[in-house]
Amino acid sequence: xxxxxxSAAPNRQAGRNGRFSIANTKDTTAQKETMDISxxxxxxxxxxxxxxxxxxPSQAAAAPENEEEAPPRPTATxxxxxxxxxxxxxDGRRFFAVPTFALNAPPLRIDxxxxxxxxxxxxxxxxxxxxxxFYAPAPSVPxxxxxxxLLRALESWSARLGRRFERQYSTLPFGSQVLVTNIxxxxxxxxxxxxPNYDIEQAMPTLSTLQELWASHLPVESESAxxxxxxxxxxxxxxxxxxxxxxxxxxxEGSDEIYVFKSLTRDQRYLYNELKMLLTxxxxxxxVPRPLYIVTRRGRFGGKRxxxxxxxxYYALGSLKHRLLEHQLGSSSSKITPSEQFRWxxxxxxxxxHISSVxxxxxxxxxxxxxxxxxxxxxxxxxxxxxxxxxxxxxSWTPPExxxxxxxxxxAGELIAEEHKGVREEVTGLLKEYFGDxxxxxxxxxxxxxxxxxxxxxxxxxxxxxxxxxxxxxxVFMLGKLLWCLFERQGLVRCxxxxxxxxxxxxxxxxxxxxxxxxxxETPEGVQRLIRACTKGAPEWEGRGRGVVLSRGKLVxxxxxxxxxxxxxxxxxxxxxxxxWWTKEVEKAMTFVKEVVEGRRQGRDGTQVSxxxxxxxxxxxxxxxxxxxERLGSEAGIEW
Length: 640
What we know:
Layout: E1 21-27, E2 32-38, H1 41-46, E3 83-88, E4 94-99, E5 111-113, H2 122-128, H3 145-161, H4 163-170, E6 177-180, E7 192-195, H5 199-203, H6 207-213, E8 230-232, E9 236-240, E10 246-251, E11 259-262, H7 269-280, E12 293-298, E13 305-313, H8 320-328, H9 338-358, E14 371-375, E15 381-385, H10 400-414, H11 421-435, H12 458-461, H13 469-488, H14 525-534, E16 548-551, E17 554-557, H15 558-562, H16 571-601, H17 606-609, H18 611-617, H19 622-635
Parallel strand pairs: 5-6, 8-12
Antiparallel strand pairs: 1-2, 2-17, 3-4, 4-5, 6-7, 9-10, 10-11, 11-13, 12-13, 14-15, 16-17
Helix pairs in contact: 9-13, 9-19, 10-11, 10-16, 11-16, 13-14, 14-19
């Protein structure tokens, strides 16, 4: 699990469960200490660590020493022509901003890092609203007060450096950083430095190394043809950097067509695992195609030419999540028809069958974000599955037989307080036996790539059996939740507690639109039955609620929000609710893993000892789900 450490050294290992935090700040309207997004959201709300959190003295966030409390300068939208800011990472600390001279040049992947929220002066938390980066729609991030303030600071800083700034910036290693070490009312007072990072280039494997590692995995009949052409990084021209892994680029000596340059500056092993998946999986019309090019770059130190990413098509229609959210907002151009619902459901189910039965592997991160739309003949729109990193998904989408093990992984690696040493040791011992690996230790995965069969998610790999049946039914669980999103026309599944809850401020939504799995309003009865079958074992069927939601920038118990009391609850009440919710989840997780481990000791199959696995086995297979979607669609008169 990732750790965001000091403002001067942002962690390069931050991953799916990257930490946030919580600071108690005074709500002047309600005169209550409510919970804002800040420094420990991961430990206090979003993860099983919340089960072990303890009440802390309520105190307002303290301003850093020697920091003035003066109000910031006006933050009207700037017409900044010196820097371009395209987005921010989910943790609110990483911004995708580049000086304009870096546009139409090879992408260096130099991101801008700011301090964690608990290091902001309190007066600036309310005026700059950095918390909004967590839940603001991606297109609106550049216009947020914090983004505009940051642009002014970057402009002032780079102007002071003069002509030498461009030279210094352009000669940095790939994946270096711009570090903002403090936030001040006057942007020109903010301290900013360039931080070279040679580790990323050094960790890049050469193309020949990957070819040697994967030789036995490529199609025997055409091993050489399985490799796309190599493209030198200098041939790319940056257009925008909207996401941590996605740069929109053009290729010189080509057309003006936009492409995706996929690269990672942390957890690079997942990039190479995805490349391997793309090269080894047979083509499918609803699966992102094999890369058009493999991009290599000569390092600044040592001269090694490493693989820094690959080129994929750009899908201008955007993601299924975006389309679903636009439909919720009533956009006439984004209306989703029953034909599209059934067609996209069939296409995604079909590509899952392909990955499982033809590719012999699994896909663990299904959600509307990872499906893009592509227009074809006669105006029809198809679904295309993206993101084959195999690093795992969000808890709310993950089947219990995987999520429960992920919970314990987090506890084994992150429950570091001495008072919890006994729990940590017990969990670690259980996981060693569950994984069948006495050498397993928390955080034992190396950052550098190695040729791991099936990726790097130990909880998913532990499900592998001789028939692939458990992988199959675990993926069916995710497919059932996607069917719910499609047929309820909802961009978010809204169940449980995880990072998805930070993507939506329910206080800004109309009550008629805020529903969550497994509530049904629009789904046809036959599809409802299929969703119920696919999601057998989901805790939501047993009445598990969401626990906590984000309402008008505050984290509040879902019950208080539903009763109209969101502004009346304290931060400690929210923390208590999360603690209760996660305590039950951890108890279920411990019970599940203990049952499986004890069953193995007795030579019994997991389904003989675990209700969780019995529920999973009762789900239909992927082929059965595909056939049922086709049958229901045909009954509804759908033309495929």
